[in-house]
Specification:
CATH architecture: 5-stranded Propeller
Helix content: 25-40%
Number of helices: 7
Strand content: 15-25%
CATH class: Alpha Beta
Shape: globular
Structural class: alpha/beta
CATH superfamily: L-arginine/glycine Amidinotransferase, Chain A
Radius of gyration: 18 Å
Length: about 280
Amino acid sequence: MKNEVIYVAKPTWYTEQVYPGHAKFYEKFVAQLKQYHEVRALELPDIWVRDFLPVQNVQTGELYQPFFDPRYANYTPKFTAAIRQQVRGAFSHAKPCDVRIDGGNIVLTPDKEYAFCLEKQRIFHKSDGAQKAHVEQELKRALGVQNILWIPQQKGDKIGHIDGYIQFLGDVLIEGASSILYGDIETLLDGKSANLVARSHPFTTVPLLCPVAGNDWLSAKGLYVNFLETSRAVFVPQFNLLQDDENATVIQNHTRKPLVKVDCSKIAHYGGAVHCLTREYYE
């Protein structure tokens, strides 16, 4: 069985200023991770390592570094430049990948043949077929997958990270369905998107209720789909909400691995949960 090393961001005086409470959360979270895996902590300007650490090629194990340049939250040009500089120092052996994409916008299928991504202008312009073809070629080279499956970015989504919508749990596709106005349910894979997924991979899809945190579009509170499955356990975010136990049970019903509940009730306010806070590499 493959065993992965889990990378996280080490608390610093700077990250504690930007994300008050991260140091306290980190201490407990890393203790949970270390029960199952080796953990390596990096001193970085930001804690959402999934978005900016290199991606790993599933065929060769090589690391590739996409260009990190987000346009959301509090990421200023100076801040993103600092992130890129420190990541290059920590992963100088990573090969360049000529794609402007965040790691949180990549979800691989269990067979590692396909990668799901949200289609957004930050990656390529929809009207430019040559640019899209270049992005797909670069991503397939970096990830080692056969194809890229683009899902339209949802209306009102200001971040555009697919790991806030879907995750695979073994061979089961877990979809985060959001409760929106008047109790309606909105999912990423409605209509055209669902047909695209069904044609590509006939996975069993399990909905997971992910309450929207009011008008705070940056908050990830309620995004239970932002869990982390490793070779040895499944780390599930908890938010001190009524749905905590119900959604943990849904996930537990689809895996034989130990379920580790991670209290993300405070850290999620800053924009992410378990999946966003980690990056796993196979060695």
